[in-house]
Design a protein that fits this description.
The complex is a heterodimer.
Chain A (H helix, E strand, L loop, with lengths): L1 H31 L6 H19 L7 H20 L7 H23 L14 E4 L2 E4 H23 L1 H11 L1 H6 L4 H23 L9 H16 L4 H21 L2 H18 L16
Chain B lengths: L1 E10 L2 E11 L4 E5 L6 H8 L7 E6 L2 E2 L5 H7 L1 E4 L11 H8 L3 H5 L1 H11 L1 H5 L10 H14 L4 E5 L7 H16 L3 E6 L2 H7 L2 E6 L2 E7 H6 L1 H8 L2
Parallel strand pairs in B: 3-8, 3-9, 6-7, 7-8
Antiparallel strand pairs in B: 1-2, 1-4, 4-5, 9-10
Helix pairs in contact in B: 3-7, 7-8
The chains are: A mainly alpha, B alpha/beta.
């Protein structure tokens, strides 16, 4: 019983990590209809920024949020404006190539500047273990869980209760009708991309004190977050949260009972089952897959 | 009020409009009738800037609006009710109407416009909290028109509002268009339902292969031999 509890705690913490990385990815896909393969590199660049701000000013890593959040937002906006928008009317695979290219460029840019070494952001007490019963987690992990839930809830409220949020949804559901309402669609796309990037900015602030930062760190996190986004239903924010938790729990249990070598097999096996029996994802309506332009 | 001057437009390498000129005066109901692929929808899409004119001008209230961004055209006072409704399917009916009053000007008049719309479409008001995609085709068309009205336009463009609807609903749609015009909004309507449209219109244009081949008083067009043969099946 104790072991089950321990694994549940670990699974939820891991799930929260996937969730906070995935939310921005699924938002951008749902609205702009672009699969952003540079999403992990947004995370990586933001983590470097967290490291720099934290060590340069000697502040608590969470304090760097003041700088990292707006920087990530602007980075997202610029990528949409300068890279995606000029390709808006071309084929989807062109946009995919563009984001893959951006991903490779960012990795190599960071390798050029910082070298391949691993950088450690000061943990400032966030690696303090907390024991509940037989379970154990770090304070920083608990913060990720709280923030993941808050972000999903916050984005949901923003999208349903504010005029800007509603116009973002409207643009995602029918782009040309949104234009006919007087919505500046290219501005909406920029804001959405900015919010998606700001989500990884927040994720970076939470993750950097717990994990080492290197130019490849984005690749490490983002593979599973693609699994999460597809499994939850492309474009579904709640779906991403639920799928994250499922993947996190499966990961924890499979890793414990079957061994670290087999757990990926189980995770991707479940992923394949979802794709076979529910290809639109757990929370995806059939519409989410149709590209309304 | 609206003036198109020798407008050419198309998609990719295909040219659809080969120099369309027409005029809509304030307070009128004007219709463009013609067959499938004649260029009716393309004309409306040029006016609302969803596509760009290759040459020629579009003037609205004396201003050149050719090539203006689509959302700016709405701010200028032109709203289009697009073909096949084009609602926001996963938003509620009320949210669809809220999107309709997106511009600053429209938002300032949100309450009174909503009352007006509810008065005109009591059925729509009953469905406020339902998702738009759950409505019947006729109800969706009413929401689409109501959403267009929410923008407080001075000129409203209708693209085939009767398409795919039951005859009784078609009649309601034309009644509503007439009511909107009676309320002081100028109307430009594009239709394949030629007879009923000419019945409510003041003037009409006939478009064939991307060119205006005929124009005049609606009554005159109903009586015209070519129109009767080609479009009214008489």
């Amino acid at each position: 019983m104790d072991l089950v509890f321990t694994n549940i705690v670990n699974g939820l913490m891991l799930g929260a990590l996937y969730a906070i990385v995935s939310v921005g990815l699924t938002l951008v896909f749902g609205i702009v209809k672009v699969i952003n393969f540079a999403h992990g590199e947004f995370l990586m660049v933001s983590m470097f920024l967290v490291y720099l701000v934290t060590t340069f000013f000697g502040v608590h890593p969470y304090f760097s949020l003041i700088l990292v959040l707006p920087a990530a937002f602007v980075m997202g906006m610029l990528v949409q404006r300068l890279l995606i928008e000029p390709l808006q009317n071309s084929d989807e695979h062109i946009m995919i190539f563009a984001t893959v290219g951006l991903s490779i460029a960012l990795i190599n840019l960071m390798l050029l500047i910082f070298g391949p070494d691993i950088l450690n952001t000061p943990s400032s007490g966030l690696r303090q273990p907390v024991n509940i019963g037989s379970g154990m987690f770090l304070t920083g992990q608990l913060n990720i869980l709280i923030c993941a839930i808050a972000v999903v809830g916050g984005i949901h409220l923003f999208l349903t209760r504010t005029q800007l949020g509603r116009s973002i949804r409207a643009t995602g559901q029918n782009r040309s009708a949104a234009q006919l309402m007087g919505i500046n669609v290219s501005w909406i796309y920029m804001v959405t991309f900015g919010i998606g990037a700001a989500c990884v900015g927040l994720a970076a602030v939470l993750i950097a004190p717990l994990y080492p930062t290197s130019p490849e760190v984005g690749q490490y996190f983002v593979l599973l977050s693609f699994v999460v986004v597809v499994m939850g239903g492309l474009g579904s924010i709640t779906g991403a949260l639920v799928a994250s938790m499922i993947i996190g729990l499966v990961d924890a249990f499979a890793g414990f009972y079957l061994g670290a070598n087999v757990k990926d097999l189980v995770v991707f096996g479940i992923f394949l089952l979802v794709l076979i029996f529910r290809p639109q994802g757990l929370f995806g309506g059939a519409r989410n897959l149709s590209h309304v332009s | 009020m609206l003036k198109l001057n020798d407008v050419m437009a198309g998609y990719g390498s295909t040219t659809i409009l080969h120099g369309v000129s027409l005029e809509v005066n304030a307070g009128e109901i004007v219709t463009i009738v013609g067959g499938n692929g004649a260029g009716k929808t393309t004309t409306l899409r040029v006016i609302s800037s969803l596509i760009r004119a290759r040459s020629g001008q579009v003037q609205f209230e004396g201003r050149d609006i050719t090539g203006m961004k689509a959302h700016k055209v709405v701010e200028a006072g032109i709203t289009m009710v697009p073909e096949a409704r084009q609602l926001f399917p996963e938003m509620t009916v009320l949210e669809n109407l809220q999107m309709g009053s997106f511009t600053r000007h429209a938002r300032a008049h949100y309450k009174e416009k909503l009352d007006e719309v509810v008065g005109l479409f009591p059925r729509v008001a009953e469905r406020f909290s339902q998702q738009a995609q759950s409505l019947s085709g006729g109800e969706q068309q009413m929401v689409a028109i109501a959403r267009g009205m929410m923008a407080c336009p001075r000129l409203m463009l209708f693209d085939e509002p009767s398409l795919g609807l039951a005859p009784i609903v078609v009649k309601q749609v034309f009644d509503v268009v007439r009511a909107i015009a009676a309320g002081g909004t100028t109307v430009l309507i594009v239709e394949q339902n030629v007879y009923q449209t000419l019945k409510i219109a003041d003037r009409g244009y006939v478009i064939e292969n991307g060119e205006i081949v005929m124009g005049g008083e609606a009554e005159q067009l109903i009586g015209d031999d070519h129109v009767r043969k080609a479009y009214l099946g008489i």
